[in-house]
Design a protein that fits this description.
The radius of gyration is 31 Å and the shape is elongated. The protein has helices spanning 2-11, 14-22, 27-55, 59-76, 91-122, 134-157, 168-178, 184-199, 210-226, 234-237, 276-308, 314-327, 340-348, 354-370, 372-375, 380-395, 397-406, 409-424, 427-449, 481-495, 513-529, 540-548, 564-575; strands spanning 84-85, 239-241, 247-249, 337-338, 451-454, 470-476, 500-507, 532-536, 558-561. It is an alpha/beta fold. The strands form 3 sheets. Strands 5-6-7-8-9 form a 5-stranded mixed sheet.
């Protein structure tokens, strides 16, 4: 228990502690952090609202997440510059949860995911995330981007759809059937927002494009409404009820209150009863949230390390993400993780430490309390346009196209499977299938690298011809379960009718349980036909495997030698042949 407490203390707040330890933190650094935090906070406010809406909940729950998780995660985490909050990657997971269980189910699943992330940090699993292939990551992020883009079409065009189906193909069909009823004012607002989002970065102005884009969309919506062409806004779409029974529209101008996640519900929803059955029902979604949050946050940290030259602590970052996702739902905040775009903006704005990300959370808090009425004017079409741009950016289309053009067919296959499963089935299935498929293809490629070579005529290695009835074979590559059966089956065929074989093993780095079993079957086959076996020059790991398994060469016609020279010398002594090269025998 003491060890676990010590481990927790080492991981908690790693980034903040390392920043303060490396260099003095003064007014200059604080001023830069505050400036960066204000910049990122401005970006985060409309995005947090838009992402909450995309998940199927009211916009204030996105702001709660950006405030609570956005403050706790940098305080406790392991990346100096990561900015956390709602992200587009979660939309594809959270929408089905909200549709089936409501806001309460989403919050409970978020808490469960946070607990899983803390356990992952405690087991020090952060570094293993890097073993997920890029083809898998690109496949499911591109699939998520497509799903997000399709989900925005309804608000982007101002369509009226009573019941949106769950399946992707049915969604597309429903949108296509509803398209003739589009609202021209909504289309004009979304188009204006998109144009500003595309053109603004080319102007070289330091202000993030999100702010002017939303302002232009809002002003246009106000103008159109005054001319008798109303556009759906946050205030016209969402309402709330205060504790005293007061009903309002838009976003409540209050701090998030503490409430058990399963008891919190939106208008038209009922609270849930916490039970083991509910936990079981949400376990799959929670696992997907935990894994995706871990992948996104650690990928973000790696990107930021490349931008700044600093190093993050993977397990500390997982710890921070877990703490944030456990605490935030008790205050109404939805699932959070590190956001690459906001984090990169944080670095470019001059952030020096996690204080910048914590400042961004306070900016969101100020906006929530003092600007809630103004935020209610934001058009739904502008929110959808923002997410269209987010979806395009997260799709990493240039990278995906480059992979399809230049990568091996195995990577293209993995990418295609992950993409298709994410869009048409489920992201949990997509990641699982992608990792398994990539692993199988990788093992196949590695297994094909393990070869058997006959060295009887290699005079650099063997000083003379081997005695009649003997052959020398060299195995190159790992002897693991996927390769060993084929290798030793080949050796068994080549060994038939021989008096003995020398097997040179200095190029075998790995011997696993499957490889050992195949070796023992080969030796038993040689014992049956009276063929002696000399095994020469094991590396350390194969020797360790033999020792741990209690391998006994005496039960086979088998002898182990430390070097090939020793094996050949023994062979010459046993057969009465004089070695012309003697001690000059060399390894290759």
């Amino acid at each position: 228990m003491a060890h676990r407490r010590h481990l927790f203390s080492l991981q908690f707040g790693y980034a903040l502690r390392e920043t303060l330890r490396e260099s003095p933190y003064g007014r200059r650094q604080l001023a830069r952090d505050i400036g960066a935090g204000i910049t990122v906070g401005i970006i985060a406010i409309p995005l947090a609202m838009a992402l909450a809406i995309a998940c199927g909940v009211a916009p204030q729950y996105g702001l709660y997440s950006a405030f609570v998780a956005g403050f706790l995660i940098p305080l406790a985490g392991g990346s100096r510059f990561s900015v956390s909050g709602p992200t587009a990657a979660f939309v594809v997971i959270l929408v089905p949860v909200v549709q089936q269980y409501g806001l309460a189910g989403l919050l409970v699943a978020s808490v469960m995911a946070g607990v899983m992330q803390i356990l992952m940090a405690g087991m020090r699993l952060g570094r293993y995330i890097q073993y997920i292939p890029e083809s898998v990551t690109l496949g499911f992020t591109a699939g998520i981007a497509v799903v997000i883009a399709v989900l925005q079409v309804e608000d982007l065009l101002g369509l009226t759809i009573a019941d949106m189906p769950h399946e992707f193909a049915a969604k597309v069909q429903t949108l296509a059937l509803a398209a003739p009823g589009l609202s021209l004012p909504s289309v004009w607002v979304s188009a204006a927002t998109l144009v500003v989002m595309v053109i603004w970065p080319r102007l070289g102005i330091a202000v993030p494009a999100h702010l002017p884009a939303v302002m232009v969309g809002t002003l246009l919506a106000v103008a159109l409404s005054s001319w008798g062409m109303p556009v759906e806004t946050v205030s016209s779409t969402f309402d709330f009820t205060l504790p005293d029974g007061t009903v309002g529209v838009g976003i409540p101008p209050l701090l998030p209150d503490f409430q058990f996640p399963w008891q919190r519900a939106q208008a038209g929803e009922a609270p849930l009863t916490f039970s083991w059955a509910l936990v079981q029902d949400l376990l799959s979604a929670a696992f997907a949230i935990a894994m995706l949050g871990a992948i996104e946050s650690l990928l973000c940290a790696v990107v930021l390390d490349g931008m700044t030259g600093k190093k993050h602590s993977a397990n500390s970052e997982l710890m921070g993400q877990g703490i944030g996702n456990v605490v935030t739902p008790f205050f109404g905040g939805i699932t959070a993780t590190a956001a690459i775009a906001r984090s990169a903006a944080n670095v470019r704005a001059g952030a020096q430490s996690p204080v910048a990300a914590m400042t961004h959370a306070l900016v969101v808090l100020v906006a929530l309390v003092s600007l809630s009425q103004v935020l209610g004017y934001l058009p739904m079409a502008s929110m959808a346009a923002l997410l269209i741009v987010v979806a395009w950016n997260m799709s990493e289309t240039p990278k995906a196209l480059h992979l399809l053009r230049s990568a091996p067919i195995s990577d293209v296959l993995v990418f295609s499977v992950c993409f298709a499963l994410t869009v048409f089935v489920d992201m949990v299935v997509a990641i699982s299938a992608g990792v398994v498929l990539a692993s199988l293809l990788f093992m196949k490629n590695i297994a094909e690298m393990t070869r058997v070579k006959e060295l009887d005529e290699n005079h650099k290695l063997v000083g003379q011809k081997l005695p009649l009835g003997w052959k020398l074979f060299k195995i190159n590559g790992p002897l693991f379960f996927a390769a060993a059966d084929q290798v030793f089956s080949d050796l068994a065929i080549r060994s038939k009718g021989l008096k003995g074989v020398v097997i040179y093993l200095d190029s075998v780095p790995i011997l696993d349980a499957g490889g050992l079993l195949a070796l023992e079957r080969f030796l038993a086959s040689c014992a049956t036909q009276g063929t002696r076996v000399f095994l020469a020059d094991f590396q350390f790991q194969p020797l360790k495997t033999l020792a741990k398994a209690g391998f006994a060469p005496e039960i086979y016609p088998c002898t182990l030698f430390p070097t090939l020279s020793a094996a050949l010398e023994k062979l010459n002594e046993a057969t009465g042949v004089v070695d012309e090269v003697g001690s000059g025998t060399r390894r290759v």
